[in-house]
Amino acid sequence: MDYQRAQDIVASSKEFEVSYNGVSIWIDKLHEDGKTATVHLRHAHEERSEVDVSELKEEYLIQ
Fold first, then answer.
1. Average pLDDT, the chain
2. Rg (Cα) of the chain, in Å, rounded?
3. What are the distances in angstroms from CA 61 to CA 18, 21, 26, 27, 58?
4. Any idea where the domains of the chain sit in the sequence?
5. Does residue 34 carry a pLDDT above 80?
6. Which CATH class is domain 3-59?
7. b or e along 28-54 (b: 16 or more beta carbons within 10 Å of the residue's beta carbon)?
8. What processes in GO biological process is this protein linked to (predicted)?
9. Which one, out of 1, 11, 50, 61, has a CA that is 20 to 30 A from the CA of 31?
10. Is the pLDDT of residue 31 over 80?
């Protein structure tokens, strides 16, 4: 994912499905370096990790 798309997702009032290494995550914060974000697993709010935004993937749900 590129940094601009990550910003759009964070700023949106809609819910998006985003994954990191195949695991569903929430983006908590985008860092000013334009390359990293703090994320947490959707079901484990206390564990946070800093990851490269380029490794995040937007999952498209089939409806």
1. 91
2. 11
3. 11, 17, 16, 18, 9
4. 3-59
5. yes
6. mainly beta
7. eebeeeeebbebbeeeeeeeeeebebe
8. asexual sporulation; sporulation resulting in formation of a cellular spore
9. 61
10. yes
Q: Is 53 helix (H, G, I), strand (E, B) or coil?
A: helix
3-state secondary structure of 14: coil
What confidence score (pLDDT) does residue 58 get? 95
The average pLDDT across 17-32 equals: 94
Contact 40, 48 (CB under 8 A): yes
Among 59, 41, 60, CA closest to 51? 41
Phi-psi region of 44 (alpha: psi -120 to 50; beta: other; left: phi over 0): beta
